């Protein structure tokens, strides 16, 4: 699904996809932490509502207003989850990253 939308995200989205690997902090003291995970339990409708806020999805729908790719994603997720219960909870883990820098005197 993300692969379909990737061309519709702004070009600077690449920095997020690369976890800011190309961003060099101009500080002597710096920390990078890739261990942070944000955890949620959402039902399918909540997850699809979240996905519908992605700028890539919004731009895709502007170009193809008659294509309901969320419907296809919904069906694919039902198959993967082996359920038809839209209220069944999905455990989601969003990997994130932190860059910290401190300006020394």
From TrEMBL:
<keyword id="KW-0808">Transferase</keyword>
<protein>
    <recommendedName>
        <fullName>SAM-dependent methyltransferase</fullName>
    </recommendedName>
</protein>
<dbReference type="GO" id="GO:0008168">
    <property type="term" value="F:methyltransferase activity"/>
</dbReference>
<dbReference type="InterPro" id="IPR051052">
    <property type="entry name" value="Diverse_substrate_MTase"/>
</dbReference>
<keyword id="KW-0489">Methyltransferase</keyword>
<dbReference type="InterPro" id="IPR029063">
    <property type="entry name" value="SAM-dependent_MTases_sf"/>
</dbReference>
<dbReference type="GO" id="GO:0032259">
    <property type="term" value="P:methylation"/>
</dbReference>
